[in-house]
Design goal:
The complex is a heterodimer of chains A (786) and B (165). Helix content of chain A is 29%, strand content 23%. Chain A has 786 residues and is of the alpha+beta class. Chain A folds into three domains: 212 residues, Alpha-Beta Complex (Aldehyde Oxidoreductase, domain 3), CATH 3.90.1170; 244 residues, 2-Layer Sandwich (Aldehyde Oxidoreductase, domain 4); 146 residues, Aldehyde Oxidoreductase, domain 4, CATH 3.30.365. With 165 residues, chain B is α+β, with helices and mostly antiparallel strands. Chain B has two domains: 76 residues, Beta-grasp domain (Ubiquitin-like (UB roll), Roll), CATH 3.10.20.30; 79 residues, Orthogonal Bundle (DNA polymerase, domain 1). In chain B, strands 2-1-5-3-4 form a five-stranded mixed sheet, with helices on both faces. In chain B, a hairpin with a 2-residue loop joins strand 3 and strand 4. Chain B is globular, with a radius of gyration of 16 Å. Classes of the chains: A alpha+beta (786), B alpha+beta (165). The structure holds FE2/S2 (inorganic) cluster (2 copies). One FE2/S2 (inorganic) cluster sits at the interface of chains B and A.
Amino acid sequence: MSDGIGARVERKEDKRFITGKGKYTDDIRMDNQAYAAFVRCPVAHAKINGIDSSAAMAMEGVIAVHTGPEMKADEIGDIITGWSITSKDGSPMQCGVWNPMVTTYGRYVGDAVAVVVAETQDIARAAAEVVELDYEELPAVAAADVALTDGAPQVHENVPGNLIFNWEIGDEAKTEAAMAGAHHVTELDITNNRLAPNPMEPRSAVATYDEAEDHYTLYTTSQNPHVARLVLSAFYNVAPEHKLRVIAPDVGGGFGSKIYIYPEELTCLWASMKTGRSVKWTSDRSEAFMTDAHGRDHVTKAKMGFDADGNIVAFHVDTIANIGAYVSLFATATPTYLYGTLWSGTYAMPAIYGTVRAVHTNTVPVDAYRGAGRPEATYMIERMMETASREMGIHPAELRRRNFVKEFPYQTEVILQYDSGDYFKMLDEGEKAADVAGFAARKADSAARGKLRGLGYSTFVEACGIAPSAAVGSLGAAVGLWESCEVRVNPVGTVEVLTGSHSHGQGHETTFAQLVSDRFGIPIDNVQIVHGDTDKVQMGMGTYGSRSGPVGMSAVVKALDKVEEKAKKIAAHTLEASEDDIVIENGEVKVAGTDKKMGWHEVGLAAYIAHNLPEGMEPGLKETAFYDPLNFSFPSGALICEVEVDPDTGVTDIVKFTAVDDFGTIINPNIVEGQVHGGVTQGIGQAMLEQVVYDETGQLITGSYMDYCMPRADDVPSFTLDHTCTPSPLNPLGVKGCGEAGAIGAPPAVINAITDAIGSNDLQMPATPLAVWTALQANKTAMAAE
Amino acid sequence: MTNVSMTVNGKSVSCDVSETTLLSEFLREDLRLTGTHVGCDTSQCGACVVHVDGKAIKSCTALAVSLNGSDLTTVEGVGSASNLHPMQAAFKKHHGLQCGFCTPGMIMAGIDMVERYHAAGQELTAEAIRHELEGNICRCTGYHNIVKAIEEAAGTMAGQKQAAE
Ligand code: FES
Ligand code: FES
């Protein structure tokens, strides 16, 4: 079937988006709708002594002003974290309490203090401006390493020294011993810059309380509406699950930032009950910079030991991770089990040890952002490899090849066991596609024009498809990370797939339909994917961590297996044949080797007419499956970046960017390539453009697109992509996940290329023209002094 | 409140709006044309691009009252699901969109640049497209397929113009 697995079909969902008919949360308008605006803490740390809302309440059109203490009095729960981490001394992590609206202390600029509900958005915003806060400003700290110093301001009283946990992974004694015996040790101080995720659609919520039914409905910008419902019910105490419907309609990108169940969405639900109105809140971009969970923000000291042949003998890591003012949902898993477990990279490392200190600061919470922990690990490892190759005079590709994992499955020193891969092949293909052989000539040509040319490598492996429920449970997760699917065959043979995965750009309406088409030979137009509504879809875990392929699609396959089995039974009975002889292809159900057959739709009809079913069979053709993965899946890739630097200005041009990835089985190449394009662009953004800046008092300096540099069309090249394929042996389709690969692999490739061009390893992200020029000058001075 | 009358997607509309109502708000809230999106508050992202009297503008940066008598086209007005504009068709064909949030602005900016270059007799190269897209941010696609889509649509639109002449 031309619509099946591997087909480059155009997306089914596109028509509504290209004609302006998408339905995003802010497009929804309820009868009786009012608007919320938040009064926010204007400084990074403050004791709120009083809130005077009289001027706001006096404004025409203002319906109510509500505060944190009122929420507390209504027993609305505090914002939770979903993963507890144990420190290396065995003590549980310590974290501050996150009230959805401030009860006493505001702890970052933007912390919600009160909500105004008004007839229009303009009135709500204007009224929020005149709510007066009586507050006392307290000392604040924004940088994680500063927060750990003696005498640093305390963000939470119950977290001494601002240290949430000091976690370790690996074998310390073995690593120290191996490091001591190393022939060469490469050391690097590495900063992983803080980023703002910036999906183009700002967060939004429309909440409605139905008093007669005692029932709530929430439309919201969520990557995981079922998890939102669970958390809002079980932890935030809004309403029991059967009295709360959460709908995530079209969602304009997420990248992690829409996983979390934030104070604003919760407050809208509560405020709709308080006011008896539908309450809508839509973030503006400035508010998004202030309140959407940020990403990354690590400071690391890393050491890698090699023997005389360039084989890695030991790797040692010491990381400080900025968690922000409160511990967000996945904030503790991101710099630990999604980071430390990837420290072996694509290499066979015999000894690894490291610690991660997680720290409270007076900044917005930091949580998973595209890649979540894996970009931080990859950036560190791949910069170490490139730096080591330069120090030891071994070509960077050669040094990587010497150390690549050669056999699979491979058990790392840091928990994970890689399923499959062929790192040599992907690097070979990458070097070919990037025309590395022609680089010297291109470099000479650049030099003739007064330019510096550089080539940078990055080979990565990541863990996708989070994850076996029991395994993550043993590591501290509060939930299981399976996925669900229900496949309904209608009496006319069309199919509905209800999935717990959520699409916010990933194209599930097409790729999930391709799985059905592949199985039964029916066109994808006869398949409808239903997702994002807790009233329609059984419980599901949502989309993040590149899990919709390896986990979500595996659930689809499992449900399709059950449907196929029943359909074959019905056909065998009708056609008076043995079940084993029934084959389904091209929309027909046939008895192999004969001309006996039924149309697919006839089987559907037979199931529902139910006049002639096998003895004891229930009518209907609809099956549900829950799939719990056996392991993570491990996509890998080789990325090669070529840059040209203008030494007079530091302006860097990416002249070519090549990515050869191994995602296992690919369902729709168009969509996979699109994911790589977008991921690489975010990676280039991190490497060259993006940086959230808080000043030392905790004021947010980068609060708009005027100050925070997003990658634009002019900043990136067209990409050269290719794939290798080692199917994952651990899920039925052999898929590995592709959503985060680009963001994980790209930053070190870019920085390695720039440092190659300028001949200095001393460069941090983002490599702005000023940073590159400064590094060049420092290098010149150092060379002159030698 | 001031009364404004304009033509929007070929239909005349007349409404009372406040002096501070932005065109983007007017389209989304008063006319319920929600295809025009708002992605920022500093005129940077281009999710809100519409055409006023044949020229692309950022609707978040214009006041509705200032456009009395104008002829407006939004993404809803350039084509329909059964009769796509070549730019819309090219975005679909080349997978030029993922979440779709930036897409209306991209399509409107794309049509505008093709028409401007065509009128000026200039070739719209991939490089020119990237440069022209300076005011449109997409967080999903990495622009690769957007550039391809606009390049192809430029060809189709030129062909259609020629055929019409
Ligand atoms: S909303 Fe108009 S430019 Fe961003
Ligand atoms: S498609 Fe999502 S922002 Fe462009």
